[in-house]
Structures are given as C-alpha cells and as structure tokens.
Please model this.
Amino acid sequence: MANNLLRLFLESNLANLKKNGLYNEIDTVYGANGPMITIGNKSFINLSSNNYLGLATDPRLKKVAQEAIGSHGLGSGAVRTINGTLDLHDKLENKLAEFKGTEAAIAYQSGFNCNMAAISAVMDKHDVIFSDALNHASIIDGCRLSKATIIRYEHSDMDDLRKKAKQAISLGKYKKMMIITDGVFSMDGDIAKLPDIVDIAEELNLITYVDDAHGSGVTGNGYGTVKQFGLEEKIDFQIGTLSKAIGVVGGYVAGKKVLIDWLKARSRPFLFSTALSPADIAASIKAIELLMDSKELNQALWENGNYLKHGLVKLGFNIGKSETPITPCIIGDEKVTQLFSNRLYDEGVYAKSIVFPTVPKGTGRIRNMPISAHTKEMLDRTLAAYEKVGREMGLI
Model:
C-alpha cells in the first residue's frame, strides 16, 4: 500500500473490530443460494438468506431469464434516458404498479438505490424528515444525501412521532415534511404501525414514505404491508426490492404517476447508471406474476416461520417481538453471539450472527430466515442444533 497512514488506519481498526467481536467473516457459497447451501465441501441448512419464497432458484424464473438473454442480450446497453429503456422495463414497471395498487412505478438497480434516489429527489435543505430509529441504513443514507433536517423518533412510538412533528411545525421554517419508515423491520421482524402513521400524516399534512423491502412477498398475502392495511391510496411512496422475496435483483418505487415522472426526470441513480439487465427484468416479471396468481409460496413461508418460532420459544430462546417469518434469536453479547453462530455452523446450520452496527450494542442476535422451500425435516434439524448448542453454552 502506497500510503503508510492509510495502512495503519485500516490495520488498527480491523484489529479492533475483531477484538470486540464486530468483524464479519464472509463465506463463499458454491452453487445456488437455496434452502441448503454448500460452503467449502460441506452442506448447510441455510437460515441466512432473504430468498423468502425460494424464487432465486425457481426453474420458471430461470427459463424466462434465458429467453430474455436470447431475445434482448445480456445488458441494457445504456442509462434509461439515452436508449437503455427496453420494452421489458416498461412491462416490469406496469406489472409493479399493478402489484402495488398504484398508478405507476419506476425500477432501479437495487433497493438501496431506491432510497438514495427517491428521498433526495424530493426532499432538500428546506425540509424535515421524521425517521424511525430502526430504519434501514439505505434510508439513513438517503436522508443524509437530501440535506433535509432529520429527526429520529423512537421505534414505532407514535406519541413520540406526533410530538416531534408538532414541535417541528411550530418552528415554521420547513417547507415539506415527510415520515419515513420500514414496513417490516428486518432485524426484529415487527411491522410498522402504518394506520397510525397515516392518521398522523393526514392530521399534520406530512408526506408518507414506506420502504417495504421485507414486506413485499411476505405480508398482505404477498402484496406487502401497505396492502395488508388497505392503505394504497394513503401512502405517497411505496419502496420495494426485487432481490428478496422476488428472488432476483433490483428495486422500485411505486406511487402516483406525477411522482414517478418526477423521479424519471430527477433521480440520479436512474439518470446516471445503466439499467437492469434483460434477464433480471424478465425473471422479476415472472416472479410477480407467480405471486399474484397463487398464495402457495406465501403460505408455505408463514407455516415454516411459525413452526421455527414455536420450536425456539419452547426451547427457551428469546425471539423478541417478531410479527413475520423473520425470527431473531437474541443473545446479547457480541462475542457470545458470534461464538453461538460458529457452533451452529459446526452442527451444519448456517445462521449468521448480527451485531453492531447493524443492531444496537448489547443486542447481538442470530437472524433466522426460514423460507418457503425449507422442509420440516430441515427445521427439526435446526431446532436440534439450537438445543444442543444452547445447552452447551448455558443459554437455555
């Protein structure tokens, strides 16, 4: 490394992360990311994927992806505003709008890009954003990029939200005000209080913004958290991803046509980054069609989630207040959490530890994600491993 100061900075800080149990070893998966995965020469029950509905390996998606490569090639060739908008992009966005119950939608290269794009395209230094304390990192970064004033309210605390919104209004200096929340909080599995949020927004004239990355395909019979509460006409921004339940890659914003027209004119990731590839688009369209045509995968996901939750609680583990198939097993201490994850690995269960800064210090956990493709036999083996390791470490 040419610069010695940079080398010392990197080495000392990496050593500190490892000392405090905050360094995450990255494993390479050989082959497909399904209910079972292969790392090295060993097979594992996979509980660390966001592939909620198992669609990442679905042969129907692979077939249409291959067909799209044959008809449209590998890449889109350009940014959307030059000549990178393919007919497939239009078809995907129309299908997303139908899926989310909105007038229009816009597709981006990732869910992270959605929040970087949409927030900064609408909010600026004259505005204020009320952001849930547990919102995803992409929301936090999107808020920062907008240069709006950011006011955090306590997680799902509607009294705190109303109080802080009224205080901000009383200052009389903000042009626009927005509430931003995840629909489903990915580390705890709880659901945002969207009806209460809408009530506050209507009372105080606030813009509503819901990132439902972990809700689409999961809640509301697969249609998402906004649909679960029947609030399609009340939420200004519906954000989603194509890389979790949909099983591919990318993200989208759904809302009124005038909003989508503005984002296509002014959101920087749309304007300055090459569009989604034909294979990704075709596979995403197929996944959404499957979700809209059948509830089978969604029902299997919930059955497996409830089965694993019941088993962990029966063993004596703390799974927090999850309201979705996301099943955290809260350990607490970061080093103990990582050791627990390592011992599960030894037992053939791949369930990664989640520690600071992803979650607050002292709340380290294993984030278990049963998917629709897991069998009961796989989940029973998982519970047996949890019991063995939990008793061995004195946690249950």
Summary: The chain has 15 helices and 13 strands. The two ends are 47 Å apart (CA to CA).
